[in-house]
Records
---
Amino acid sequence: MLDVAVIGGGQAGLAAGYFLGRSGLNFRIFDGGLRPGASWRDRYDSLVLFTPAKRSGLPGLPFPGDPAHYPTKDEVAAYLEAYAQTFELPTEYGAPVRRVRQGPDGFELTTPRGEWAARAVLVATGPFQTPFVPAWAQHVAPEVTQLHSSAYRRPSALPAGRVLVVGAGNSGAQIAEELTRTHSVTVAQGRPQPVLPQRVGGRDIFDVLGALRLLDVPVGSLLGWLLRRRDPVIGTDLRRLNRRGQLQLAPRVVNADGRRLVCVDGTRLEAETVVWATGFRPAYPWLDLEGVLDDRGWPLHHGGVTGIPGLSFLGLPWQRTRGSALLGGVGRDAQVLVEREMRRLKGQGPS
């Protein structure tokens, strides 16, 4: 029997593995990918982090290269692979967990490779699981190309002509800006999100936020509540691009009618391609446990700790602070959860 089963071998799972490897607990990481960093390799070609390398490392191994450079998605994937190898983290790749249920001594896990038992389970699959596209997208005419932002790779893969990007978070804004070089672009968005420049006075914005301790604002504080309501876009200012004539802005899209998408104000937009930058929804169908998720499917937790002894989550947005879901911030949460589980399993702390 394992002491701890970690579900998910991305940055959150690897950070947990680092601390578990020093805890003396018997653990194993389970991941559906075939190698570390698989999900990063599968993202769009031009993706770079908006945190510099010096703020993008996991515990025990700084991100390589110039500390001030912004790592590409392939550099992140290579770093995660090197991380897993450096610390020899015991991982079952190509082994997605199909079911977790409570057992006589903790939990029972089902994978394609068989059954496992564990005294504790740490879910580290992250927040980006199931791409969300509104149900009415089915009313878009079949000759219009549709894809979710998670399936976007490069401008040359899209048909020539007009592109409508629906959604203006960080991914939507970055994709829209890239497409302005090759396509006619319109971005449909609801209430505009605040924009933070990548650099302020020659300093990276995350150095500024770190100095102001805004990355450490607790989730339960008033400031944390205010920041969660309006999570900013980093670097890409769509309104500035609009003023320069590089793209068009439109109100929120609420329906589709053949080749036209209908905005909340009645405006109708036509495009050859629609990129749905509409985010993700949680998906935990394999968690066969009562009282773990709310009615929207999100984990019920406090700082990652659930009401079921031994079950915790890691890598969620605003799990404990603003930095919880960032590559360079997940390690702090991992340490807290692993140390808590050590105390529980050794009979020295809360369940």
Note: The domain at 133-194+230-276 is CATH 3.50.50.60 (FAD/NAD(P)-binding domain).
---
Amino acid sequence: MTDFSPAWIEKLVEAHWLTLHSVVVLAGLAVYAIGSHTFAQRRHPSAAIAWMISLALLPYVALPLYLVLGNRKQGEGRPTAVLPRPPGPGAAASMADQLAAALDLPAEAGFSDFQLHEDGAQARTSLLALIEGACHTLDLCSFIFAGDVLGSDVAQALAARARAGVKVRLLIDGAGYYLGKRPDTAGLARAGVQVAFFMPPFRAALKGHLNLRNHRKLAVADGIHLWCGGRNIAAEYFCGNAVDASPWTDLSFDLRGELAAQGQIRFAQDWAFTMQQAPDANAPPVPAPDSAPGMTGRIVASGPDQAQDTIHTLLLSGCYTARTRILAVTPYFVPDQPLLMALVLAARRGVKVDLLLPRHSNHRLADLARPSALRELSAAGAQIWLAQGMVHAKCVVIDGGLALAGSANLDGRSLFLNYELMVAFYDRQIVDSFAEWIERRLQGAARYHARKPGLARELTEALVRWVAFQL
């Protein structure tokens, strides 16, 4: 009779440890290969190499992490509501329309009453006005919804509209909910607000989706009034908090019209996914476009629910076609090599490239990971500006003909992992207003001057960039 005592097992492991270890390594690599093929996980080459090396050298750590964090795209094919599509490529179609058609983006939609918020106070006033003006439906999505003074004001306004008979839905990211003081969601529910949490951490971990967070930020009233940008619902993004009385520099805007309906449809899709419902049951009717819509834009969503890396592709296209100016602001600058090279080549061919960053962001890893890209971009002739205080705004302006503004940072997490939402604007007046907003912040910023790093610093930067922002 075979002896399966602990001593026998220990002796077996000692005799065949290399074979057993090899089996674990091969199993980990097989899981990676099968998962990448089955769920269409198209990764950047450096991210793929990072996973494979980790699975080979540290399989007992890397394999559990891969099972929890490894999925980048949803394999089950998320249902979507019908959005108006741009015309097919043809002689009459603009380059923007051709690219939008290739990426399956919605058509340009009209809007009016555009307002770019100068500061957090104006953003707060506009958000509360949108909420208080809702008559039929009110949808709000945020990565963070804090239970601080700002969050309490917004929560009270949401509850008041729900009590007045408005259909109010609040979608908070399941991980972002735990960042900072939590809001009184039970009180909101009692008032009639429908509250949902996007992929709660435990459930997401079981599906390998823990790394995929909903970073989209928008509020839509009655399908006609949109508030959007980079601000979470927390005091630091608007008016300052108990730790720091100075508010962060952030960017948001609001508008009215058909473009707002695209935002509401996008919210309805995220809500249906969270509630495991068919999106058609929640998608509102799209209001008829104005007879004279004036300005146009389009909602640009990116993330695991999109077949393409939409925002990344639009940025690459914009950088390669830019002729005179690229102006960008982002809190975290850790681009992948293709995007960095697109910016570098633009600067080398004479395009004026200006990049505004915080001197020190709220994420130390992001600050450790960015110097290599900054040195390369600076050497190509780009001007990099470092602002005092935290800058959380996200916007890219290209040639006065395109402005992309919303929730996406210029780093791998935003461009390849998170659910993000940007709005593309094409009207010269609107695009110029974004450029002027950024330029006013450049005036108080200091020029970045590259310094050659030591070997230890360079290795640290590479490790942080490779691991923290690629996986």
Note: Residues 6-69 form one domain.
